[in-house]
Amino acid sequence: MKGIRHWALSAAVLIVVLLGLVSVDARVREQFTNLLAAEGSDLAPLGDRFGEFGSALLTAIRLQSIEHAPLLVFATVGAVLFFLMVRT
């Protein structure tokens, strides 16, 4: 039961980070909208849309982490300490 909660928490955090990037970066928002706007059932365009979305997402993560490096370090250290405290 504890493992399921950890997986659910990890998925929730990933979704929150993804939605945060979608709301902040216009390129990610555009690709996310293109991904959700399914036109037909063709798999090739769906794969292309996933690739474009992934590329925009990685670019946004890289740029946001460069711009906000001190905050990123603080949040990472805080998250590690939080998980260590919860685990024990």
SSE blueprint and pairings:
Layout: H1 2-24, H2 26-36, H3 43-67, H4 69-87
Gross morphology: flat
Order of H and E elements: HHHH
Supply the helix-strand structural class. mainly alpha
Helix content: over 70%
Strand content of the residues, in percent? under 5%
Mean pLDDT: 81
Number of strands: 0
Number of helices: 4
Gyration radius, in Å? 16 Å
Tell me the major beta sheet: none
The N- and C-terminal alpha carbons lie at a distance of 17 Å
List the uncertain runs. none
Defining key terms:
88 residues, 4 helices, 0% strand, flat
Structure described in brief:
The protein is mainly α. The protein contains 4 helices and no strands. Helix 1 crosses helix 2 and helix 2 runs antiparallel to helix 3.
Question: Can you walk me through this structure?
Answer:
Helix content is 89%, strand content 0%. α1 packs across α2 and α2 (26-36) packs antiparallel against α3 (43-67). It starts with a helix and ends with a helix. 6% of the residues are buried. It is mostly helical and 88 residues long.
